[in-house]
Amino acid sequence: MIWRCGEDDFENIWSIINDGAQAYRGVIPDDCWAEPYMSREKLQHEIDDHVVFWGYDDEDKLVGVMGIQEVEDVTLIRHAYVRTTSQKLGIGAQLLEHLLKQATTPVLVGTWADAAWAIRFYEKYGFKLVSPAEKNLLLRKYWRISDRQIETSVVLADAAWRDSRSLNLPFPDLTSSDSSGA
Description:
By secondary structure, the protein is of the alpha+beta class. The chain has helices at 10-20, 40-48, 91-102, 116-123, 132-142, 147-151, 159-166; strands at 2-4, 52-57, 62-71, 74-82, 107-112, 128-129, 153-157. The termini are far apart. The model is unreliable at 177-182 (pLDDT under 50).
């Protein structure tokens, strides 16, 4: 069962993120790894910044989480993690499908460039890597991450994003931080 996480789920969300993130140990640059991978303060900051977490329940136990965040004219998929003991069971897929149904704007996903399994996961759902130049612009516009993380990350975009770019639709405007057009 999938549900919107609440305040009572904070410790479980934090635990799942840090357990699931063990897959990145030794894969991402050492200077980007921390223990714990995400601090409680950072998680609270993400929630305060309007990342809404959804959880996957297996026999009354939260085993997977994924965040969704509306930023200006796009929807970001954020912090997708499944407990190590529950990985490869389709939980991430179910969470992603659930969140994609909620998105009303083009969807972007950022992940580590060296996390080939994560890139393949999103590609299975129609996401495609954007160019390195566009990646840099997108990460600076829609995410609040360090220059080092920008350097070592990729962005994948859904069909709505790609269509808007190829048709020169008015969204999203990468040259402005003000999406109102003013």
